[in-house]
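Human: You know discrete backbone vocabularies at least as well as I do. Show me how you would write down a chain together with its backbone fold. No explanation is needed for now; the record alone will do.

Assistant:
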Amino acid sequence: MAGKRVAIMVDEMYQVLEVWYPYYRLKEGGIAVDLVAAEARKEYHSKEGYPCVSDISVNDADAGDYDAMVVPGGFAPDFMRRTPEVIKFANDMVNAGKIIAAICHGGWLLCSTPIYKGKKATCFMAIKDDIKNAGAEYVDAECVVDGNLITSRKPDDLPAFCTAILKALENK
């Protein structure tokens, strides 16, 4: 999978497993991974305080340079939605037809894009009404793949989530 590149979105209060599990699975697969955030080289902290230093700012990230975007959960997506440039980058990725993967509360960011319209998706049950209101048909399953959209519910679903991302990247 040489030449493939993925943006993993980060912000304060991210769910630690939902950033680092995909990060290392993708790197093991030979994929270049950037931790993308509102600010470059800033230290963001997980819900447990585990640090993560972003590689690149969304202002410097170009959707054309990436094959996929991964949006982890925790409270980070709520912070992400407060930054217009993060929403713009997410929309650029969606509008470019890239692979879009969200787990747990990560789906919150995607509610600010048209990705859910007419698609099946899952998420953490507390935000299912949000994704339904954004146009998705909610499905309670460990991983739902609908075209270029890959969604999962919670950290327990990470094996299926990452397997689906890797399969989508292989087929791209």
